[in-house]
């Protein structure tokens, strides 16, 4: 939204109006386009055309309010969905960190076991060598 006021000539329902606001001219034209589409939608209904002008206006306002509340409801649902996805993402990140910590601990344990295994293998070789020496000296 700009801080400079914009004036834009638009056509709504076949009449030229000057809209003023702090939005861009493109935005003001978009509003006019939306209203024209709504008017066209309502004018397709023969019953609408037969209504007095004041009732047509009220029906248009009701339709616009209906659109507004439906969009507001959809917006709230999207916000809830985004909040749930944010929570799910947080949970997944937390689970990832937890899994990484477990993996690092498992790697440390594995490394310690490999070192112990290497030392045990050396002991086995030393003991087998001693045993062979003892058997050799017992035969003599």
Offer a quick outline of the entry.
With 140 residues, the protein is mainly alpha-helical.
Distance between the termini: 104 Å
Radius of gyration: 40 Å
**Class by helix and strand content?**
mainly alpha
Outline the biggest β-sheet.
Answer: 2 strands, antiparallel
Number of domains: 2
Question: What is the count of DSSP helices, taking H or I runs of 4+ residues?
Answer: 3
Cross-sheet strand order for the largest sheet: 1-2
Strand content: 5-15%
Low-confidence stretches: none
Q: How many beta-strand runs?
A: 2
Order of helices and strands: EEHHH
Question: What is the residue-mean pLDDT, rounded to a whole number?
Answer: 94
Percentage of residues in helical conformation: over 70%
Shape: rod-shaped
Features:
two-stranded antiparallel sheet; 2 strands; 2 domains; rod-shaped; mainly alpha; 140 residues
Structure, described:
With 140 residues, this protein is mostly helical. Helix content is 79%, strand content 10%. It contains three helices and two strands, in the order E-E-H-H-H. It has a two-stranded antiparallel ribbon with strand order 1-2.
Element layout with pairings:
Elements: E1 6-12, E2 15-21, H1 25-43, H2 46-50, H3 53-139
Antiparallel strand pairs: 1-2
């Amino acid at each position: 939204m700009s801080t400079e006021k914009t004036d834009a000539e638009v056509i709504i329902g076949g009449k030229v109006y000057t809209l003023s606001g702090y939005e861009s001219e493109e935005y003001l034209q978009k509003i006019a386009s939306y209203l024209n589409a709504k008017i066209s939608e309502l004018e397709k209904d023969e019953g609408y055309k037969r209504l007095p002008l004041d009732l047509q206006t009220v029906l248009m306002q009701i339709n616009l309010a209906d659109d507004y509340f439906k969009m507001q409801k959809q917006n709230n649902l999207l916000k809830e969905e985004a909040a749930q996805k944010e929570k799910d993402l947080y949970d997944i990140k937390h689970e990832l960190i937890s899994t990484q910590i477990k993996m690092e601990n498992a790697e440390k344990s594995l490394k310690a076991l490999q070192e112990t295994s290497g030392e045990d293998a050396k002991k086995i070789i030393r003991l087998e060598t001693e045993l062979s020496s003892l058997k050799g000296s017992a035969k003599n």
